Amino acid sequence: MKAAFLPERGVVKVSGSDARDFLNGLVTTDVTLLHPGLGRFGALLTPQGKITVDFLITEAPPGHGGGFLIDCPRALAQGLADKLGFYKLRAKVVVENLSDSVGSDRLGVLAVWDGDPAMKPDLAFADPRADALGWRILVPAELAQKAADAIGAELVDSTAYDAHRIALGVPRGGLDFMYGDAFPHETNMDRLHGVDFDKGCYVGQEVVSRMQHRGTARTRTVRVVLDGPSPEPGAAVLAGDKPVGTMGSTAGQNGLALIRTDRAADALATGTPLTAGGLALRLADPNDVSSAPKQTVA
Q1: What is the model's pTM?
Q2: Where does residue 36 rank: exposed (0-12), middle (13-18), buried (19+ CB within 10 A)?
């Protein structure tokens, strides 16, 4: 079993008597179902349905002050806290960015995979996106080694977790898609249990529901296999000389790309090779660009 502290992740806390209903009216996942030890995947969208920040969220037990802890990109943590503060109006809610706080309140994110923890710390939860992604434990950086030892894991570099994530086909914002420019379906949030289509309204809900019911998502994040050097993130993916997408993150022979599925399917049908930055690549699974059954949250 491996564990890696993820320096690019931060934690935002939302507490107060109105916190649950407040968050549930804003984000794509059903916060009413949360309890300590359970995590969910979700996002805060623009009114136009595009992702401003995606995150994992859990409920803190009473011994940790209660409230909800949001595991999000650290670079976006303060912006998320500010945005939630803007939305709260008169709601009885307190929003805190714990990523850079001083003292015992500071929290970061430890990812654990390739096994189950020997014991479950208070702020631990299974990653809701995919079983193989393992667990998340919210701890300050200085306690990462102690936490890894306690659960029986080897502490490794965060690049090992990135390689694991990429091999599983799970995109990371800022690398595999740009915040403010991607719809949830394009980043596979609907397939990774990040959108609850049965809950009530939330910001951007009308657009996301329309894409779901009309099946209009033509762009998807897909796994690609590299037979040589890795293209730069952001490089155009071409089928012959026609653009079909954009390259994302890579690790070894595995990579992710944001692909127009109809164009990639046409390229497959005609045997047209795919390249990015002049380097050859191929789809890990051609079914990734075919029509897939609709999925919702677990």
Answers
A1: 0.93
A2: middle
DSSP one-letter code for 50: -
For the chain (length 298 residues), average pLDDT per consecutive 10?
97 97 97 97 97 98 94 97 92 93 82 94 96 97 96 97 97 96 95 93 93 86 93 94 96 96 93 93 89 45
In 3D space, the residue among 105, 115, 111 whose CA is nearest the CA of residue 136 turns out to be: 111
Torsional sign, CA 138, 141, 146, 148 = positive
Which residues, 6+ apart, have CB-to-CB distance to 184 below 8 Å?
28, 43, 45, 49, 51, 190, 194, 195, 208
- For residue 18, which of 8, 26, 9 has the smallest C-alpha distance? 26
From the CB of residue 221, how many other CB atoms can be counted at a distance below 10 Å? 25
Share of the chain above pLDDT 70, in %: 96
The H-or-E segment that residue 285 falls in is none
